[in-house]
Design brief:
It contains two helices and two strands; from the N terminus they run ααββ. By secondary structure, the protein is mainly α.
Length: about 120
């Protein structure tokens, strides 16, 4: 046999044109790009769900904290009123003027009547 006629096996790509090779690479690139985009969309979806859940949890916690804050403010106001009452009673009872006063057995009251100035009620 003539050595020039013997057919040797070449790679599969050897007989394709340059245009066909580029087309195959483009299709392979398009497929990879499609899957990468789908993967990114899925990741963004899961991230959105995670952020939404985190915000909902924080909102619920903030709502509970505001309710607790309101209750504590009401309790603080009640305690401040109670402190003011106790301190005023204590301050009045500790006045020196009260120690010098005596109890009256027959009190006389000043009564205001119409068309008359001040009159003592006996």
């Amino acid at each position: 046999m003539n050595p020039r006629i013997i057919h040797t096996e070449y790679e599969k790509w050897t007989f394709f044109s340059h245009r066909k090779k580029e087309k195959e690479q483009f299709q392979l690139g398009f497929s990879k790009t499609y899957w990468v985009i789908m993967w990114v969309i899925a990741c963004l979806f899961f991230y959105y769900v995670w952020v939404l859940n985190a915000n909902a949890t924080q909102g619920y916690t903030i709502q509970q904290l505001k309710q607790t804050q309101t209750e504590l403010q009401v309790q603080l106001e009640r305690l401040n009123i109670r402190i003011a009452e106790i301190s005023s009673i204590e301050a009045i009872s500790n006045e020196e003027v009260l120690r010098d006063m005596i109890e009256i057995w027959t009190p006389e009251y000043l009564v205001i009547r119409e068309n008359v100035q001040y009159v003592y009620n006996y």
